[in-house]
Amino acid sequence: MNIALWVAVGLLAVVFLVASSTKLFIPYEKLAQAPGAGWVNDFHPLFVKSLGVLELLGAIGLILPAVLGVAPMLVPIAAVGLGLIMAGAAVVEFRRREPLHALLNLFYLALCVFVAWGRFGVESFA
């Protein structure tokens, strides 16, 4: 179980590092024109950058506390936070009638739930 949780955490960390870097380093206008990023047009540029910061912090929160052994309770908390972001993303994608993107967001949500459940209880670091 511990290995499965680490694999899920690693996958989520990579996904959110990539997602946050695109939101933070690609200009808003260029990001809005990217395939699959039409949702950006529905939000203010500052919101998109803030979302990138939150995703970056979440990715860091999934890995560093457990690896360093400092406040490992932050791992499931980061998973919950990222899960909330994914739930919101799925809602936005469903409203935009982009079901494939919404399903991908729901998959990431499921991984976040799995990590939170596993690290809060079954395989906690405590």
UniProtKB/TrEMBL annotation:
Keyword Ribonucleoprotein carried by entry: no
Localization per record: Membrane
Protein topology in the membrane: Multi-pass membrane protein
Segments passing through the bilayer: 6-26, 46-67, 73-92, 104-122
A cellular component term, taken from the record's GO annotations: membrane
Alphabetical UniProt keywords: Membrane, Transmembrane, Transmembrane helix
Protein name stated in the entry: DoxX family protein
